[in-house]
Amino acid sequence: MVVDQDWSSVYPTAAAFKPASVPLPVRMGYPVKRGVPPPKEGNLELMKIPNFLHLTPPAIKKHCAALKDFCTEWPSALDSDEKCEQHFPIEIETVDYVSSGISIRNPKARVVTLRVKLSDLNLDDHAKKKLIKLVGERYCRETDVLTITTDRCPLRRQNYDYSMHLLTVLYHESWKTEKWESEKSEEDMEEYIWENSHSQKNALDTLLQIKASENVSNVTKEELLASEVVKKYRNSVIALKNNGETESNMSQYKESVKKLLNIQA
Amino acid sequence: MLRSLKGLVCRSLRLDRGCALHTAARDGLSSVSSQDVPAERPRAVFHTSESDPAKHTEQHEARLYNIPLEEVKAVFPHGLPHRFQQQIQTFNEARVMVRKPALELLAYLRGSNFAHPAVRYVIYGERGTGKTMTLCHVLHYCSRQGWLVLHIPDAHLWVKNCKELLQSSYKKDRLDQPLQASAWLKNFKTSNERFLQEIKTQKKYMWGKQESTEEGRPLGEVVEQGLARVRSATDAVGVVLREIKQQSHRGSFRLLVAVDGVNALWGRTTLRKEDKSPVSPEELTLVHNLRKMLRNDWSGGAIVTTLSQTGSLFKPSSAYTPQELLGKEGFDALDPFVPISVPNYSPREFESCYGYYLERKWLQHEKAHTEDGKAELRFLSGSNPRQLDRLAGPL
């Protein structure tokens, strides 16, 4: 075979291994005792396995050059990642599978993954909490990304339509408020709210008792709630409940309780 | 002087666990007897002869003070950790180490205003760091000052392993625990004799069909009634608690409510009713009354409590922070409280404990007397009082 021959014309498509056409000294097979693997001439092992001799880099370059006529230019305005995310907040991920076999179909190719950031959706506080409760595990708090993976339909286009439909339904449902949502109790709350909690009640009762013992009357609840010590106490309790107990949280809570109850060392 | 130099030398091997609160549940702290023990090292600086907790200040920190044995019997009929009681018997004296958390608490108690509602203090820390001993130190102070001390040695004993559960005659859906109640009443009587004569009942109490206690009788009669008729012991406890609470604001006495293992009151119990359904803590009369005591709607005293994982039920062994052990209900009930953390031994405290064991000849192993041995003990125990106590035992 000539050295500067065009390889893509020897193997333009997928074909079996032809030992005369491939100029490489390939050996394959199990060697006999104190021997070497059999050579390529008449080698069944080499002929039965799939080969990618038709997909060498120059061949692929030629394919791309041929396909270029059917492609359009990338829009020049979208030159950075942030601009892409800003204009196209929804990301669709699909996977194509290539294999050397009789059929080009692969059932895994129908899976569609839809990713969107909740900050790009127009949601108010109640809608966001309801949406997070509805999707459950599919939402990641750290990155604020909702991921919906659909594979229940046989075709990729159907799965894509279904995932878009899901997103639309979630969005609209989370904006609605049902009658039974008013029964939301303390256990259902996502984060700790100090207003109307036991902690607030206890603190106010204690402060009122203290004031009563000092014969200071006419102190209203609103005044107490607006005072600095109560605000600090409120912040420390919220930090303790939402962020867990750490050294700094506990010492902050301790200081705020000491100020609240007027304890001197 | 010498001790602080020793502390500098050993600093490189310090292995404190940073913010862990440890309670010296067993840390007995040694104290040296006042006789001169011929020792190789100079007379220990880590003992102090100041045996009145009221006079303990920062300069007494990490030192051990002696409690006379008669006082121990009077003030602590129940409540000292078991290992510490064994240590008292072995060394024939009771020495308690003065540590920072206790000093802090004593300062708060001294400066507290008794016209305000009672302040709640929660002592918390990891296992074996000295929580119960801190509580006992504070108890000793209060009893020396003449307070009425309501000490519940371990609230976990009331929510597990009860042989008898009677249905309460006072409220149909509550359960009585006569054995636990009568045991507690007996110990309460020993520690607070004089108050039981001074405090008078304020209304008439009926025990069953015939017996009753009139108004104006001393509280000792109620206690006697509870001890004599074991069936009504639980109700007697309830009456005692109620009377004390109502009269504390008058100022004739100061009240200290000391509860060890307070997280038992808001957890789960292992008790079952006759139809095998589990009992929740509210259904136990003792727990119900104690919870009422722990509310801060009374004045004229203080409430000092300890969290304890060791006897607790259904809690993981790594839990030690207030929220983990008390749960949501307990935290909401005790809030706002002052949390006091008890850490492992500081280097100074470790030195003084080690020096005490040496001086009492508790550490017999010849290698234990060397510097290397001390460093090894420090490393193995991690400066945890309970671990040190257990390690020093076989040596």
UniProtKB/TrEMBL annotation, chain A:
GO terms under cellular component: mitochondrial small ribosomal subunit
Domain Small ribosomal subunit protein mS35 mitochondrial conserved: from-to ranges: 102-177
GO molecular function, one term: structural constituent of ribosome
Classification via InterPro entries: Ribosomal_mS35_mit (IPR019349), Ribosomal_mS35_mt (IPR039848)
Pfam family, one: MRP-S28
BP GO annotations: mitochondrial translation
Superkingdom of origin organism: Eukaryota
PANTHER family, A to Z: MITOCHONDRIAL 28S RIBOSOMAL PROTEIN S28, SMALL RIBOSOMAL SUBUNIT PROTEIN MS35
Record protein name field: Mitochondrial ribosomal protein S35
The encoding gene: MRPS35
Automatic annotation (TrEMBL), chain B:
Keywords, in A-Z order: Mitochondrion, Ribonucleoprotein, Ribosomal protein, Transit peptide
Pfam families membership: DAP3 (PF10236)
Subcellular localization, as worded in the UniProt entry: Mitochondrion
Example GO BP: apoptotic process
Main subcellular location: mitochondrion
Cellular component per GO, a single term: mitochondrial small ribosomal subunit
GO MF annotation terms: structural constituent of ribosome
Protein family per UniProt: Belongs to the mitochondrion-specific ribosomal protein mS29 family.
Protein name per its UniProtKB record: Small ribosomal subunit protein mS29
